[in-house]
Amino acid sequence: MSHFQRVLLTGASGAVGTALRQSGTRLGKIVRLSDRKPCENLGPHEEDATLDLADFDAVSEAVKGCDAIVHLGGQPLEAEWKTILDSNISGGYHIYEAARRHGVRRIVYASSVHAIGYYERTETIDGSVPTRPDSLYGVSKTFVENLGRYYFDKFGIETVSIRIGSCFPEPTDRRHLITWLSYRDCRQLVEKSLSAERVGFMVAYGMSHNSRAFWDNRTAASLGYKPEDSADDYADKVFAKTQQGDPNDPAVRFQGGSFCAAGHFEDDKK
Amino acid sequence: MSHFQRVLLTGASGAVGTALRQSGTRLGKIVRLSDRKPCENLGPHEEDATLDLADFDAVSEAVKGCDAIVHLGGQPLEAEWKTILDSNISGGYHIYEAARRHGVRRIVYASSVHAIGYYERTETIDGSVPTRPDSLYGVSKTFVENLGRYYFDKFGIETVSIRIGSCFPEPTDRRHLITWLSYRDCRQLVEKSLSAERVGFMVAYGMSHNSRAFWDNRTAASLGYKPEDSADDYADKVFAKTQQGDPNDPAVRFQGGSFCAAGHFEDDKK
Amino acid sequence: MSHFQRVLLTGASGAVGTALRQSGTRLGKIVRLSDRKPCENLGPHEEDATLDLADFDAVSEAVKGCDAIVHLGGQPLEAEWKTILDSNISGGYHIYEAARRHGVRRIVYASSVHAIGYYERTETIDGSVPTRPDSLYGVSKTFVENLGRYYFDKFGIETVSIRIGSCFPEPTDRRHLITWLSYRDCRQLVEKSLSAERVGFMVAYGMSHNSRAFWDNRTAASLGYKPEDSADDYADKVFAKTQQGDPNDPAVRFQGGSFCAAGHFEDDKK
Amino acid sequence: MSHFQRVLLTGASGAVGTALRQSGTRLGKIVRLSDRKPCENLGPHEEDATLDLADFDAVSEAVKGCDAIVHLGGQPLEAEWKTILDSNISGGYHIYEAARRHGVRRIVYASSVHAIGYYERTETIDGSVPTRPDSLYGVSKTFVENLGRYYFDKFGIETVSIRIGSCFPEPTDRRHLITWLSYRDCRQLVEKSLSAERVGFMVAYGMSHNSRAFWDNRTAASLGYKPEDSADDYADKVFAKTQQGDPNDPAVRFQGGSFCAAGHFEDDKK
Amino acid sequence: MSHFQRVLLTGASGAVGTALRQSGTRLGKIVRLSDRKPCENLGPHEEDATLDLADFDAVSEAVKGCDAIVHLGGQPLEAEWKTILDSNISGGYHIYEAARRHGVRRIVYASSVHAIGYYERTETIDGSVPTRPDSLYGVSKTFVENLGRYYFDKFGIETVSIRIGSCFPEPTDRRHLITWLSYRDCRQLVEKSLSAERVGFMVAYGMSHNSRAFWDNRTAASLGYKPEDSADDYADKVFAKTQQGDPNDPAVRFQGGSFCAAGHFEDDKK
Amino acid sequence: MSHFQRVLLTGASGAVGTALRQSGTRLGKIVRLSDRKPCENLGPHEEDATLDLADFDAVSEAVKGCDAIVHLGGQPLEAEWKTILDSNISGGYHIYEAARRHGVRRIVYASSVHAIGYYERTETIDGSVPTRPDSLYGVSKTFVENLGRYYFDKFGIETVSIRIGSCFPEPTDRRHLITWLSYRDCRQLVEKSLSAERVGFMVAYGMSHNSRAFWDNRTAASLGYKPEDSADDYADKVFAKTQQGDPNDPAVRFQGGSFCAAGHFEDDKK
Description:
- Chains A, B, C, D, E, F: It comes from Metarhizobium album.
- Chains A, B, C, D, E, F: One of its GO terms (molecular function) is oxidoreductase activity.
- Chains A, B, C, D, E, F: This is NAD-dependent dehydratase.
- Chains A, B, C, D, E, F: InterPro entries: Epimerase_deHydtase (IPR001509), NAD(P)-bd_dom_sf (IPR036291).
- Chains A, B, C, D, E, F: Pfam families: Epimerase.
- Six copies of one chain form a homohexamer.
- By secondary structure, chain A is an alpha/beta fold.
- Chain A has one domain: Rossmann fold (3-Layer(aba) Sandwich).
- Chain A contains eleven helices and seven strands.
- Chain A has helices at about 15-20, 55-65, 80-100, 135-155, 175-180, 185-195, 220, 235-240, 250-255, 260, 265-270, and strands at about 5-10, 30-35, 45-50, 70, 105-110, 160-165, 200-205.
- In chain A, strands 3-2-1-4-5-6-7 form a seven-stranded parallel β-sheet, sandwiched between helices.
- In chain A, helix 3 (about 80-100) links the parallel strand 4 and strand 5 (about 105-110).
- In chain A, helix 2 packs parallel to helix 3 (about 80-100) and helix 3 (about 80-100) runs parallel beside helix 4 (about 135-155).
- Chain A starts with 5 loop residues before the first strand and ends with a helix.
- At the A-B interface, helix 3 and helix 4 of A face helix 3 and helix 4 of B.
């Protein structure tokens, strides 16, 4: 059971949020669920806090009484600027500023591979390299990471920023063989991020035990994270179902995959 | 004379903007000046483009026809979130997105020491270290740097992000002996940022030839930047007028100075 | 099955070449075997291409129609200069230049520990350290690695350069406990080098899962390489059969072993 | 069986010394035991050499005839300066100087986490970082490490300096989940330090296979060290019995634990 | 004039101490001079404090009332162990512990090239590399550096440890062309070490503006140190008077010069 | 006057060779000049040794009696493979092997920017980065550097490999503003390479004091090299005469300039 009294879980209705609800009291004695729509099937340790991240007062009300936050909420893919701005940038600020005002001690943030998507697949990087976002979405992730760095350096609020690769039921393309994070490993990583005695401001990579990894994930290891799943187990299936890509296609060359091959959202959506 | 046909200079009415106007056609054959209020005393190579950075259409109109931008505009100090968000974050996005739409080839951005303010003064850093902002203002600077990184990696628009230390007529406190950038050197650094053949995405530090520097400024050197002024020449005067600080005061300990000692703007302003 | 249509395997009659032939169509749909003498017992997916690497026209003819090359051929030990020059240096150039002319997309090259033999055993190195060859043979390996780097940077031909430690049936001396590569793991590493979507120009180390390793082999791991064998399993046997060396003997001190203790071939052969 | 003829084991009566005696002839054909009091229950391969490390002549007499030393002796915790000086500093010099005079070839030294105790728990360090001792005890450990470096560089006497984390029967607090070294793994690490062909001057970390480790222990791995125990197996028990600490308490923040929270021994003992 | 009220200068009668006395009140408003024998010709801002560094009570008495210390005292060359132990090791501890008890805020310590003497001359090192002492004297210098690190991390007492190369009237051998520190530059470096607002624990190299330097001295530069002298001006004279050495002689190969070529003091003195 | 008795200068009739002849006895007491054609106007300290580098016996005869070599000879630009192979690869081996047989102690080798031509202009590199040649010519330069590394590690023959940027009478294009090496500075750098007491195997960059440099040239500085000329003095003239390049043109993007934009020599010459 977590030593936190009440943990706010944002984005609780999404696929990852739903997976994390299975952690139950390993997140906190009480888990407050927030999303745009009310969450269903609340357990005895759960409570609901429907809200729009763009609304500071609503966020502040939801944060009140919590001592930790798992922040999954916001726009999960590339989108037009206004959406990124409201959901991810303002939303991220609202979470951190409410945390400061209400004495929250630790935040676990769902960052993304798209914060560093423009590194080549042949490069092994760790959490200290300069960010290289591959989309406005990725830029918004780097923004919240910088917020986390700031709120720790000035106010002592700890953050684990987990750059999630591909959190899906199973790997379906060749890049997922590198970046896949199973729901089970995702739960473990979030739980370990909450139970570690000290995390300061830490960047970890969210991936299972995939041998093809291009990430040096020693920070996650230092939290005690030991992934139980591996994309390797799906390799034969994925190789059989998918074509070999052109190594010079940006979607193959860079860690961010198809995000790096796309143009600007405004143009692409036409 | 610059090889750029028309350069947009934002924040043209501020102290630094005014200093840069003296560069004349070394910035561009035509220099378009923008600020919230009309600029005065236009020279024959200058044209006016009054605008609010928070207004995308106005920014886009001003960028049209330019092939380079020197972006000084926006909120120059810590402020409440709404101001930072509109002027620096949305404003920064508007500049880059307008640049993309209108074929601008290079942007010189006035970033700040406050993007890395939480490094200790005893650490020598270069432009590749992880950012450690000391304020919401500093966070907004890291946001625009990430935008610049993204627009170069995906769209090929080059950026020199100059992390300006202290750009004032002369150093007035002991920290300025480290961080001072004279107006003359500022002009040279911006001019060299525009005339270099290739800059990619580059982070340089904006300081004069100060021997107490805590920055490894090899990127600026590679642009051909050779500062002509030095804060050293003001050392005796500054030492005489100021008190030795407590080395454990955050304002003395960290590179960001008083920004690191301040609390959150919302609380401090009360 | 490999996604390559036809792969040229040079040095196919040697011990490593023979071991690799067992990979069958995991190398390529068709595997063309080359050596100085005709290869025997051709399988249905195999074809023969007898040649001398020093003969550019013969190499070019053999490369024609292939889209990948596994280049094991050439002189495998220290030798007089003329042999190194013709077999390894000219031979290496012939392979790369023929590859360029005939549209080959990827080359897997059998480089060697002797390219970095003068690092001390107590140093852990990765593939990015400066080369330190321990013989003319080792110098020739660095030459081909530089060719591979060049042909990728200019012509986009990908290379995995595998610095093979000691590829033998089993470890027989104490240094082999560090450097041994089983035939089975060798096959896997070459197969993974061919099946990875993008390799760019990559240096990997060819060793099994030996706990005494002095190599940081993260590049091989990023290909998905998971060695199945370990020299550790032979440690007791090797310790029992061999003497402890003098730690200051160059053969013990350096990674290249006895190559570092030898003089110049011309003198030693007398 | 070790290839060393006679190994001196100092501190042989302590908990770690007693554990190491179980290694028997894997340390040396003969193991000479030294401590302030005579050791008991000598085996057929053991001999006794009672001595005070502060007495050079006694140390020299005990070292005579040995070709290796495992140096555990001295003050094992913070103490007043006089004790540290006599037991650890003079004692350390006596060991090395006697080794030089009597032709000892290798020393395995029991250094400590307290030599680098002031690194934060969120930092992963290896053996090459600058030392940051957390106590006079820790300073004395860095002193002997520097002695070892000197005696290797000038006289060729090899040293493995093992920075032991927490060598106890089992982990009992949350920091031990990171730093624990089982007696079994301790034995293995010392044995491997003696049997490796070349160690030069090497710093290794003494910990079991703990996933929460903040140490990059590649040097120990290069000796062939494969820990068989893990603090992870005790994690549930430790979590249940202990409270979550305050992440900003020095005892939680830094690697040295409570040593970092203590004041100066002279003051604290009052 | 220094902002320190009273500075203790140990080793005040030696050549370097005498040179530093010329700094006058740039060291402190009052400068207390200590050495084994009384200092002569006291100026109005000077006071005498004769003492033996091996005597803690005497050191404590001399430190009382001071807010900074410039610690030059102790054995300045290789010597027998007893001398090194009493003068440099115990002496160093006495200085730091007295400083802690009496509230001293900063210590400038005269460390030495011999703390890192075993780096090769062809290596450029900075203050963060592992120490590699070349003598017992050098080991004692690393001991005091570790003390300084400890007293800063735990008690906040700042230290600048200046690794002095060769502080003589002028360079007289070829190695001095690299390591020379003029008395004038030595004064400046100590003064700047005292006047900088924050130094934390810092390692700087004590050398003039010698172009042949093998030290990256950015820390000294960050104090504002701008050497005015250069060994280059003596190069022709030194080249004319001295022979070219054998590059493989340890005295030529290593940074510590003849210290690296010497044996152990006990043997050499015979 | 050099301490070497007789120095062989290969490529003595070329532009750089002719410039170096002005160094006179600062190279060696006797300077033996070699090129394909006899050198003219021999001074009293000069002697002629006409030879073809591809002829080992001729090289060996010329090396006999020399204790140092300045090796400029060979093909100075991209060429067909046969020329590169004979002049630069075989020629390089002949020089080193003859040096070994005849007891030569030091070689100064004219390497080239084209050994690392594929680094981007915005990257600052030093001599330890992996080579990235931009031509067969560049590959041949890396070959000789590896030879030099080998002959030092095994036989103790010292080498300074000078990667010359652009050694011409004056800079004539914008890239030369970065890479220019004046004849005067070239002379100084070669002289300092010969007079330094120990160089081991060292890579230095051959450039004047150009502020736009993308090379960290600390190794050259450690030889005492202080360039007296600067391409900066030609910047206005060059800017006036040349067009701004496209930053994405390989000739502008990469350090090797036009070599990076060219195709393969065999194709381009048609």
